[in-house]
Write a structure and sequence with these properties.
binds adenosine-5'-diphosphate, 34% helix, UDP-N-acetylmuramoyl-L-alanine:D-glutamate ligase, alpha/beta, binds the ligand O=C(O)C[C@@H](O)[C@H](O)C(=O)COP(=O)(O)O, globular
């Protein structure tokens, strides 16, 4: 059994809070940005991608965020609605803020980077007073994402969501989603990440992201077990540390640990791996599957997304993930 108990009698399974942006993914792959001239537009932003992933897997979902009052903002809201995501708490900015853009550079299947345009973005202007208590009260699982902690007022909006989630018994997952360019100081970053993490039941991050959080601590060996153990003194029940293609390791409050390998994939680009992994893993936990099976599901969803051109639009359905796992296991048993 999964060690997490989700509340029942809620109208939504999953609500994410944070950024709604646009990804512009290079069409000409395997070359630098300087030589790239055309891009395909997708909805992006890590929490948006995870929410779309959960919706594709059949979960009842909703989003708390802010979009620009422009064509891009309307494109985002329309796409969420087409995917059955409740947009009742997606607020439209009225200050002239813009939509965040992420241009992706795909130099090779293993060498990808992102060029972010994030000055005066609408997503960081979500206010605490704009977070509706009823949407958080009505969900089994709330996901927060670290980038929304980078500035006020979005930072306070995240803490308000956490307060509502605690008040109404929602399980809270934190995808660390550390994007250095959004932050001004490493000390400030670590302080706010740690304050938020103390309140969360599930922490998911890469080794590098946890290293950033351990700025004030002593873990010179970057020991995963040491990293995870600390959080069990707070609210955490599961801590996952991701290691890219090397797979991931989960630690649970009951003292168990679980490793997941990555699946073989025809990798087009590396981004999107973490978001699809989070969606697949959280979906598994919500089915009350054991942690190891949920991790396998997340890894399979990630392999599907890294083999595709987009992040959001490539999020798989449960049927696609099941089929992928079956075929992969048949091709290379164990
Ligand atoms: N090249 C790859 N091939 C197949 N699966 C991958 C690859 N890279 C990552 N994954 C899967 O995605 C998961 C998350 O990837 P990771 O790179 O650690 O996260 P992030 O995208 O947040 O940096 C991994 O645990 C693995 O299962
Ligand atoms: O999060 C963003 O703003 C950009 C994403 O939409 C992007 O495509 C990406 O980087 C996904 O990140 P990952 O899943 O952590 O690899």
């Amino acid at each position: 059994m999964s060690s997490i108990r989700f509340p029942d009698q809620k109208t939504l399974d999953f609500v994410a809070v944070g950024r709604l942006c646009i990804d512009l993914n290079a069409n000409e792959i395997n070359r630098p940005m300087e030589d790239t001239v055309t891009f395909t537009k997708y909805v992006g932003g890590s929490p948006a991608n995870i929410c779309i992933g959960m919706a594709r897997l059949g979960m009842q979902t909703g989003f708390i965020g802010k979009v620009a009052d422009d064509q891009m903002g309307r494109f985002i809201v329309r796409y969420l609605e087409q995917n059955g995501i409740d947009t009742g708490n997606v607020v439209t900015d009225d200050t002239g803020a813009v939509t965040g853009l992420a241009f992706t550079e795909i130099k090779s299947p293993s060498d990808c980077s992102i060029l972010m345009y994030r000055d005066n973005v609408a997503d960081l202007l979500l206010k605490a007073s704009e977070v509706k208590e009823e949407i958080v009260a009505g969900t089994k699982l709330l996901l927060i994402s670290g980038t929304a902690l980078a500035q006020s007022p979005s930072r306070e909006a995240v803490f308000q969501s956490l307060e509502y989630a605690k008040r109404h018994g929602a399980v809270i997952a934190f995808d660390l989603d550390y994007r250095p360019y959004t932050w001004t100081s490493e000390e400030e970053t670590a302080a706010y990440y740690n304050l938020a993490a103390e309140k969360c039941d599930i922490l998911i991050g890469t080794r590098e992201e946890f290293d950033m959080m351990e700025r004030f601590e002593d873990n010179p060996g970057h020991d995963d077990n040491k990293t995870a153990s600390k959080w069990f003194d707070y609210s955490a029940q599961i801590v996952i540390i991701k290691h890219g293609k090397e797979g991931s390791i989960a630690y649970a409050k009951d003292g168990s640990s679980h490793r997941a390998k990555s699946f073989k994939a025809n990798v087009v680009k590396t981004f999107g791996a973490g978001d699809s992994y989070a969606a697949g893993f959280l979906y598994g936990l919500m089915q009350q599957w054991p942690i190891a099976k949920s991790m396998e599901y997340g890894s399979a969803a990630a392999a599907i997304v890294v083999s595709s051109h987009s992040c959001s639009d490539a999020m798989p359905t449960a049927e696609q993930v099941n089929d992928f796992i079956e075929k992969s296991n048949a091709a290379s048993p164990n």
